[in-house]
Amino acid sequence: MEKPSWVPTLVAQACLCFSLYLAFQLGEPQKPMYHGTSGMRPLDLYFISVGGGFRPVNQQTHLLKQMEKVVKKYKAKFVVDISDLGKDDPLMQNGSLLFSSLKLPWYTTRVSERHGGGYFQKKINLPYEKTLDVIVVDTGLFTVHPRGTGSLGGFGNNQLHWLKRTLEATSSNWRIVVGFHPLAICEDGEEGMGAKKVFESLQLIFMKFEVNAYLSGQGCASSVRQRSLSYLGNPGRMEDGFLLHRVSTLEIVTYFVSSGGEVVHKSVLHQRGKEIM
């Protein structure tokens, strides 16, 4: 029996519809892992900073998995762990132990009251013979009074002198100082919640030696600018997430990545502190 003449036409139309559907599916841009980022730039350096400390196991595991995704996607070179526990921080220990891609250098802060040596400098190479200084200080050696003035003991003075010598000797293009305690202090009852008072001795040193950013635990705001200096705060455990930093020869771009993998905030620090957004 001869097939009706409309059967080949129907088959051809069905094949055409399927081909169009497949073409649309293949040509549709894929949803990026992290909205708000501009995609990886191979010549730039990426690193992560995160607030350490104790967390419930499921919360810690989820945070480390998000960090692992970012490390793989952007080939981050190291992690800065903002913690008062130093090398005993559980986030660093479990991250390095449980996730192979997180077995990269971790630089962690510590808080002590009577012991020196919790401060150090790491020089990171950038493209085009540029360098980045990551300088970690032990903020436990500083005592900050309510009026914003500092009272230093012997170990605190030793650290302060070391910081001056280190910054004076360096020729790095970017200089980031890292500490556990935020140095931008907020006053209640005023609008804006900006940086109202800053630990004066450190601020003067940062300004004199052209420090680009101070990276710490979160204070009153996630990002505060004091003239040419940027204060960047990592979120606490109540608002879990971390910061992804992209360093180029001309700017440092910082993204706050939430625990859900969404970029909800971005700040830009230009070389010589020309602008921050």
Proportion of residues in β-strands:
25-35%
Category by helix and strand content: alpha/beta
The helix fraction, in percent, is 25-40%
Order of helices and strands: HEHEHEEEEEHEEEHEEEEEE
Give the number of DSSP strands. 16
Mean pLDDT: 78
As residue ranges, the low-confidence spans are 16-33, 145-150, 189-198, 273-277
**CATH third-tier fold name:** Purple Acid Phosphatase, chain A, domain 2
Keywords: Signal
InterPro entries: Metallo-depent_PP-like
Organism: Prunus yedoensis var. nudiflora
Protein name: Calcineurin-like phosphoesterase domain-containing protein
Keywords, separated by commas or semicolons:
Purple Acid Phosphatase, chain A, domain 2, 277 residues, alpha/beta, 5 helices, single chain, globular, 6-stranded mixed β-sheet
Any overview of this molecule?
Keywords: Signal. It comes from Prunus yedoensis var. nudiflora. This is Calcineurin-like phosphoesterase domain-containing protein. Helices cover 27% and strands 29% of the residues. It is an alpha/beta fold. The protein has a single domain, classed as Metallo-dependent phosphatases (Purple Acid Phosphatase, chain A, domain 2, 4-Layer Sandwich).
Strand-helix topology:
Blueprint lengths: L5 H22 L17 E7 L5 H18 L4 E4 L7 H9 L7 E3 L11 E7 L3 E7 L5 E3 L5 E3 L1 H16 L4 E5 L5 E2 L11 E2 L1 H9 L4 E5 L5 E4 L2 E6 L6 E7 L3 E8 L4 E8 L7
Parallel strand pairs: 1-2, 2-3, 5-8, 8-11, 11-13
Antiparallel strand pairs: 1-14, 4-5, 6-7, 9-10, 12-13, 14-15, 15-16
Concise account of the structure shown:
The chain is α/β, with parallel strands linked by helices and 277 residues long. It has five helices and 16 strands. It has helices at 6-27, 57-74, 90-98, 154-169, 200-208; strands at residues 45-51, 79-82, 106-108, 120-126, 130-136, 142-144, 150-152, 174-178, 184-185, 197-198, 213-217, 223-226, 229-234, 241-247, 251-258, 263-270.
